[in-house]
Amino acid sequence: MPSLLPSSCAMRGLSIRAFSTTAAARAPPRGGGDSHHRHSSSSSLLSINNPASSRTSRSGPQSAHKPSEAAADLMTRYKKAGQTSLRNKQAHLDIMRNQKNSNDYLKQMPRRWDAGDVYSPHDMSPVEMQKWRKRSPRGGDVVDALGIRPLDMYKNFSLIQEFTSTSGQITHSSGTSLRPVNQRKIAKMIRRVQGMGLYPTIHAHPEMIRDSFFPERR
Amino acid sequence: MGGRAVSPGGALLRTSRMFSIPKPLPEPPSTNLHIGDHKSATMTRPYPQHQSITSPLASREKGDWGLKRPFPLKSTMATSTPFIRVKQLDTVENVTNFASAADHSLSLEKFQELRVAMSVPHNTDKKADSSSRTELWHKSVFEEDMDVTDFKAGLGDDRRWKFQGPWLARMTEGKFIEYLDKKVRPKRAQFRALLKEKLADDITTSQNRAAIEAGKETPAKVEAKDISEEQFTDYLRSLRNDRVTLYALVSKFLDLAPLGQPVGIIQTFWSNRDSLASESPYGKSGPPPSHPSAGISYLRTSSFMENHPVYGPQGKRTPALARVVYPKAGPVPPKLGVGGFVADAPPGDNEFNFRTVTRGRVSSNKTMLNGIMHLDTTTFGGAKAYVEATTANVDPSGKVVLQLRETSAEAQVVARESKGLTEIYHDGKTKSYTPATPKTTSQQSARVSDETRWNRVADEILDEPSRS
């Protein structure tokens, strides 16, 4: 089997770098000739991941503490406080904008990943993500899985709604994916409950469609 | 049994491993009930169901995959990942139904590059006694005392990973009722006989103890047939109130997979009983559907130190670049993808967690990774970070769950350098690191002048032999 991934080429670049004798390789990559201006090796190593942030954080103007300049000091502090509040506000706005942007994109990624899922590049594609948007048709027999007796479920309106259309008709067994025995039992139960007048025959149960008529005030 | 459709020789060949493709594994069960009905038929499954087949290039050019008929060159030669899975060798249309198996094959390769050793699930809520010492580190699934399936093995019995009976926690109600009807009810008489024998044993031991305490001769052994019906009924009633003993007896009789222990007062009762659940490492998490290694890694341990050719032994192992697959969504931790396996972001105080209130002061994590709180829409290819995969275990639905840990800054730099992204190593001189101390400008200039002098001295000394 040919190796398809680039096998861990961990040492390749390094060995060339370390043991080559070309002039370009021998020259110190950073700092030039001035060895005393260079940072120590470990400090530069630690800051290499975030080169921008490490330098700028420490540069703060040192305020003078002479009594004659107290008023000026107060003024600069006041200005600085204004600046920080402005900066905080901008940071907050940035966060809000990021959040909105992120939510907009996440709407296109309806898959909720679980620990242990395996993905390949194909799983990240928009085509694949669209498949996670809609509910897939039920596979197994629900009545068998739950171990319920359908004829006893006549007061369970949410269950009846699952097996009837919005206009109160019994769903075909191709839609319910029940086995024939259970489909007959469910159909019998629905016929009974509609005959008894407990469940409407031409629309869904009023409790189920209540929200469309009386939307909840927020 | 239906009649045999083929000759005995043909049947032998068909069932032999040499000439047949193994039967596909069942579809992975959906663990989360809420997202169970949101799924895709073409997604990559958590584990491969079909065998992955490949063929050398010379044979592939002829379409020869060692199967019944040649494969189309147009699809099998145009790929850089020549792996196929055969879904059906013979369809009614007289073609072979096959698809690419590159997804799982490459995932396996990536996983083995991570060099992760599989371990048994870590029980966090163990009582702190002698067993707690072994809970400090991950135990390999290949340990001799854990890697057993033998039902009759005396000591290792409660640490095995395979059980005859089902795992009741994962059964649906309908399946459970069916199990009760089909499997449990016919064994009723057998269990009563077992209980009777246990009662006889109990009576005998209590009689013997009483006799020894009274200094008398031990009475005759009580047999199961000597026990009256009333005596037995009373015993059954007492057992019904003693759930712990009854559960231990039933689970041992039916060889049920261990269930989690109830937490609280019951635990104190539980500790001095002989029960299956207290010892099994799979009591809390549930038994794995396959061998707990799932055949994905055969490493026994990850307790080794990596050696770098220039920098020497490394404190941390080579980290892997993880993709932030999904940002943090409410209480759900952000999901990272390592080598094609989705895992929870490493817990603790690191760049993957938003630091909250610590000792009264709220401090948000300044160095947090970009894609954790929100989806990173600016980085090309999405947010990525280096993590270290410590171990993995197989959960009851067959998923391989990786455990991640944050890695150190030095390990990240070394990993980036090995890929040629940064350059740290150089042949020049390096200073040893001294912690930064506040110093005045005059001191600094003095130091600089000292250093230049020192350099000049060094130059003089070093250049002398080369000139002469």
TrEMBL record, chain A:
Entry's Gene Ontology molecular function annotations: structural constituent of ribosome
Keyword Ribosomal protein part of the UniProt annotation: yes
InterPro entries: Ribosomal_bS18, Ribosomal_bS18_sf
Gene Ontology BP terms: translation
Comp. bias intervals (Polar residues): 48-62
Region (Disordered), start-end ranges: 22-70, 81-100
A UniProt-annotated Pfam family: Ribosomal_S18
Signal sequence residues: none
The keyword Transferase is assigned to this record: no
Gene Ontology CC terms: ribonucleoprotein complex; ribosome
Keywords recorded for this protein, A-Z: Ribonucleoprotein, Ribosomal protein
Protein name: Small ribosomal subunit protein bS18m
Source organism (scientific name): Trichoderma asperellum (strain ATCC 204424 / CBS 433.97 / NBRC 101777)
From TrEMBL, chain B:
Biased composition (Polar residues): 431-447
A single GO molecular function term of this UniProt record: structural constituent of ribosome
Basic and acidic residues biased stretches: 448-468
InterPro entries named in the record: Rbsml_bS1m-like
Keywords: Ribonucleoprotein, Ribosomal protein
GO BP, sorted A to Z: mitochondrial translational initiation
Annotated spans, Disordered: 43-65, 277-297, 426-468
GO cellular component labels: mitochondrial small ribosomal subunit
Protein name as catalogued: 37S ribosomal protein mrp51, mitochondrial
Species per Swiss-Prot/TrEMBL record: Trichoderma asperellum
Lineage: Eukaryota, Fungi, Dikarya, Ascomycota, Pezizomycotina
